[in-house]
Structure formats: C-alpha cells, structure tokens
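Dear colleagues,

For the upcoming journal club I promised to circulate an example of a predicted protein-ligand complex. I picked one with cytidine-5'-triphosphate because it came up in last month's discussion. The inputs are reproduced below in full, followed by the predicted structure.
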Amino acid sequence: PQPADISLLTHTSRYCCCRASPLVCPNQGLIKQLDKIKEARNLEGEERSMLSYARAISVSPFPHVITHSNLKREISKLPYLGEKLLSMVEEFIKTGQINETQGILTSSRFQALSAFTTIHGIGPHTARKLYNLGLRTLEDLERYYEVEPGRCGQETLAVIEAAGRESDEAIVERSIKVALALRHDFSQTIPRAEVEEMNRVVMSELEQIEQGCKSIVVGGYRRGKPQSNDVDIVISHRNWESGAGKIKGLCKRFVRRLHERGLVTHVMHLSGFHEHNALRTHHWDSLEKALTVFVLPGDGSQRRVYRRLDLIFAAPQVFWTAVVGWTGSTMFQRDLRLYAKQQKGFKFDSSGISRRHDSKLFFPKTEREVFELLGLVYVHPTLRNA
Ligand code: CTP
Ligand code: MN
Ligand code: MN
Ligand code: MN
C-alpha cells in the first residue's frame, strides 16, 4: 500500500471504507472473542445485535493495542463502542476473555448450528430448522439428506441447461447435497499458489473459446489471506467497445466447456440469466455468475482436492465495480454502499455505480477511479479486511 493513501485514512470514521483494516491487527485476541458473540447472534437470527458486534469488531483494528490507559481517552471515542461493548472490552483487558464468549463456546446448540452453517447453502434459518428436527452433527445431516461422503453424482449438464428455470428450493437443496458430500475436501483451505494455478488453468481454457478475456482473482485471496476457503474470479474482456457483447452469455458457454474438460465437476448455481428486474434497469444487467466445484488436472500420482470456484462475468464498463464488490470484505462492501448512498447520493454495487437523482451511470476505467467517483481515499485491498 502507498503510505500516502494510508495516512489519509482515519480510524475514527463511521464507515469502514474510510479506515485501514489489515488482515492481522494488534487487537486480534479481542476480535476473536467478539467474533464468537457475533456468530452466535447470527446463528440465532438476531440481525441487529449481530451487526452491532460486527461494527465493534470492525473498529477494533484501532492502530494500537487496546489497554487501560487508552480506553477512556481514545477507545471510548471510537464509533459503535457503546456502554455494553465498552464494558466487554474492559472485561477483556482485565481477564483476557469475555464471560459471554465462554458460555457460547460451551453451548452444544452453538456448536451444532455453527457446524451446520459451514455447509454452503445452509444459513442460520435452515440450521435452526435442522436442529429442531433433532439433528446435531454433520453425520446426522448426511443421513437426513441421504448423502454419501466423497460421492456426489450430479447431472451437471442438465443443471447448466436448467439455469434460470429452477426454484430457489431446488437450488439450495442441490448446493447442500454437493457441499455435504464433498465437505472433507471443502474444509481444506486453499494455499495462494494453488489459487494462482487455478486462475491460470481457467484463463487458458477461456482463451480457447473466447480470445481477449482478462481476469482478477478477488475475495479473500486479494485481501492477502494466506489460505482461502474458495476461489473467486472476476472475468471481463480487454476490448472496451466489443467486450460487453462477448461477455454476455459467456458464463453458461464457459461452464459447459469446463465441464466437458473435466475441470468443473459440479454446478451449485448459475445466476444472472432470467433474473431481469424491471426496478433495476438503470444499472447494467445483473452479473452472470457460476458457483461451481473445480478440480485441477492431476498427474495421476495423487487425487486432487475438490475446490469451490466462483466465476463472475462483468462487461468492461462494470469490471472494476465487480472487482471492488467481490474483493469484499462483506463489511467493507456494506459500508461502501452506505457511504455512496448517504454521503454522495450514489448507488453502488458489484454491477455498477449510478447517481441517484438522474440515474446517470459511471464506468470507471481503474480501481482507483471507483474510489475517486465515490469521493473516497483509495484503500489497498489488503486493508479491506473489516
Ligand atoms: N459476495 C457478493 N455476493 C455474494 C457472495 C459474495 O458480493 N453472493 C462478495 C462479498 O463482498 C465477499 C466476496 O464476494 O466479501 C467474497 O465472498 P466469499 O468467497 O464468500 O468470502 P471471502 O472473503 O473470499 O473469504 P473465503 O472465501 O476465503 O472464505
Ligand atoms: Mn472467497
Ligand atoms: Mn466464504
Ligand atoms: Mn466465494
């Protein structure tokens, strides 16, 4: 990151897109404890409370270690740390832990719900439903969904062709079955070198069916995480004029091709096809996306691990908004949207930037331009870990 940019960021801003949030910060221990409470609130569907903890966590990368001596003077001036949160921070400084967190960690309900939500497709609501049926472990879930570990047959081609015509329930049910069957592979994190190899293989395959495309690996990888849970790639075309036409429909065509080549084994969901929403016509079409299971070609000596791969297709005009949106983090994104709306009267999301009063669209040509348009100091991707 350029020092000039960092020094313009302020840790007291209400928006995390104006603060520097490194991957590892001086208050990691505190954050870890608060994160458990946040997760517990999330699992119980307590949205507002969850967000309070998420916000407290996002201001905790305060530049220094939080101590008794700076608590009254500086910490109490940070946004989002109200009376209750401050007393938890105080408890942490005194004892090195938070009582409520200890209770959560020993709760068997928490353990079951958080195990369930590691499965792609199972959110808090579904997790609670499964728990209420008496299910407690992932093995229970395997029996319930009639899934055999390691084996997941799927009519992948049929799934690709059916894109846009399936019910939400069918999509969720399939995602859960695939994610359950392959959970032992999906729980293994992906080192950076393998992320890069996957991008290389994907892009050389893409070149075979559409020349002149480009990509950026986004998600946690781009924020500097040494290990990722999945791989997220935003794909676009180098030609500003003809690119949009080439990107349209490419998602389905490309996933079909990757499947033929044995690289994509399963498809969880293809989206952005029939989801045309009349209320959102002032933005570029919602992006075509493929949530897939990918396996690198092996040399025969060992089985390669199945990986989750998300492919996002963006016209050149919205490539940089897609990159910013998909780089995350989720909180950084949330505040970018909020800042754009509250401070600038702009609408921002992965599929575009527009001005609210006249719906004028903006097509940034670089990532820095996205920040400039919103009147923000550029934040390096590795400082977006809010
Ligand atoms: N995202 C999004 N819409 C979705 C899913 C994700 O815009 N339906 C964005 C979010 O901003 C998120 C980013 O894509 O931060 C990447 O999401 P994800 O892969 O779930 O998390 P990572 O941050 O990449 O971390 P990891 O995959 O390693 O868990
Ligand atoms: Mn990811
Ligand atoms: Mn994830
Ligand atoms: Mn992802």
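Two points we might discuss: The first helix runs from residue 3 to 8. Residues 219-220, 225, 228-230, 232, 325-326, 328-330, 333, 350 surround cytidine-5'-triphosphate (ligand 1) (CB under 6 Å).

See you all on Thursday,
B. R.
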